[in-house]
Amino acid sequence: MDVAAAVLLLAGSLFALIAAIGVVRLPDLLSRMHAATKPQVIGLMLVVSGLALRLRDPSVLGMLLFVVILQMATSVVSSHMVARASYRSALVREDLLVVDELNDELNDDAHDGLDHRGAP
After folding, report:
1. Is the pLDDT reported for residue 29 higher than 70?
2. Which end of the chain has fewer surrounding CB within 10 Å, N or C?
3. pTM above 0.85?
């Protein structure tokens, strides 16, 4: 169990390192946000799994599960809100987008008499 815990801790640390490198090295905001959320959450889940195997205490396991659930919920919502705000502020490089569904939604709002923020 200790060897499996060590492997999970190292793998989680590696994912967190990859996320940090991605935030520094990737070219645009959306790519950086992707690097900051997905590998970081997976790394956290691996580290927490390693801690759970190492500690084997039921009271600690509940707290670790709570940490993972909160991290998964908050990182997804916060990255979505930052991406949407940056898109509306024209900070996203449109030449790197493969599919742009938000532009269609914003154009539909403009035809309904709403501005790009959804206000009349």
Report:
1. yes
2. C
3. no
Q: Under a CB-based contact definition with an 8 Å cutoff, are residues 71 and 47 in contact?
A: no
- What letters, b where the CB count within 10 A reaches 16 and e where it falls short, cover 2-21? eeebeebbebbeebbeebee
Among the listed residues 43, 41, 21, the one whose alpha carbon sits nearest the alpha carbon of residue 31: 21
Backbone angles phi, psi at 91, to 5 degrees: -100, 0
Instruction: State the Cα–Cα distance between residues 55 and 71, nearest whole angstrom.
Output: 21
Who's near 57: CB < 8 A, 6+ residues apart? Answer: none
One-letter identity of residue 61: L
Residues 46-66 pLDDT 10s: 999 999 999 988 888 999 999
